[in-house]
Amino acid sequence: MKRRKIAITGIASGGKTVFLTTLLWHLKEFKDSKFYKEVKEVTISDFSNVPSHGNKEFRFYKHRDSLAKGRKWPEKTNDIHRFRCEFSRGDRKLFKKQQLNFLDFPGERIADAAIAACASFDNWSDHMFDYFNDRADYSEAACQFLREVESTDLSTDEATRAYRRVLARFVLDYKPLISPSVFLLDEEGDKATYQSLEDLAEERICGLDEQSQFAPLPESVRKANKKLAKEMRRHYQRYRKKLVIPLFREVANSDSLIVLVDIPSLLVGGVERYNDNRQIVLDLAEVVAGTAIGGRLKQMFGLDSLRRVAFVAAKADRVASNDLKNGRLRSLLKQMTERAEDRLPRKVESDWFICSACHSTRPGNAEDTLIGAPLSDNPDRLEKEFPVSPLPESWPGDWGFQDYQFPEVHPKTARNLQQPPEHRGLDKVFDFVALRWRKGYGYQT
Ligand SMILES: Nc1nc2c(ncn2[C@@H]2O[C@H](COP(=O)(O)OP(=O)(O)OP(=O)(O)O)[C@@H](O)[C@H]2O)c(=O)[nH]1
Ligand SMILES: [Mg+2]
Known about the structure:
binds guanosine-5'-triphosphate, seven-stranded mixed beta sheet, alpha/beta, 445 residues, 14% strand, 2 domains
């Protein structure tokens, strides 16, 4: 049996749960699902899930029922989930059965990519300050932090308290580069809520537990405060070993990686949100490439299996259909991720896709309108025609929060479980990451 591991993550949320739910749904109901739009020669049957004991399982049936029976988007998921399934495929002679192991991990954890990448606390600290210094929107909070940690007899408690205030500021400003990521999303999957800065800084922790918190320290402070630096190094290594390395090792040792990018949300969110999320994609690429700053990641992870990376512009049905046809959505995705793609090893093949896993709109009567059931102020889920912003040809030099508009909609689904939702592009992503592997990459087509 051919086994393949596929990791899925999302940038600016991304739509991971909907993507994986509808993909599994189509595989399960393949016979009736009209999964393939163009390629017809593959048939899939006998779908079953293989329980992965001891792991948090992706709750496919619950999410599917929420979409079908409740016509509601699945609830937010904050944890790492796995789903293992088997099916028979009709197009190949060599393998009758195929098993896919999916790993769905929250984008928030990617903020720890620099921790995975930096084998030492000192390297990570320098990396963080370089990043903060480069960016006006981060540097104000970082400068304040630097002023607070400059004292020579600083305690761990004072240093981590000051850093927690920085992280709380970032949470309130919707900055995604929050690392250690447990501050935003703890090990149990509990996510920081929007509350006062002081409360956030008090309630959340920046480390594995209260006693092992850590904060980046500039070189001068590390030198002046040897005991503190030593303690931080120890806490950093514990966190890295327990939370970061296992996840990133699993990601790096997947056969394929799907990076879902929510471009409409990035446009709505403004330029800073774009910059931050692009940095996260770059960090992720460094980790999977093993080329990371100061680290010997390659030896550590034995990064040999990753062969395919699919960058996917998700939720494409929120964009005017003209912008799908003229290639702007794909082009924006490419512009955003091209440098990350450059960093991937040569043996990794990557491609760019556009996809809406649960296609819930249709073209409106004008070029820049869509018809669907807007989420806001629409409890009866009535279909309406609404305007959407045309996509820019390339990412603008500057833009603000809500300069662009792509209203969210209710999902369009049938109650009949045999009929998974309409999709665009899901089949192509699936073929690329799971089925059609070129000869020379160790797999048959
Ligand atoms: N129009 C449209 N909206 C989508 C689609 N997929 C996801 N969405 C929207 O995006 C939201 C988040 O999707 P999820 O699949 O839950 O995203 P996620 O990446 O799992 O998010 P977290 O669980 O919060 O990490 C949904 O509640 C929908 O509002 C899609 O195919 N089309
Ligand atoms: Mg989710």
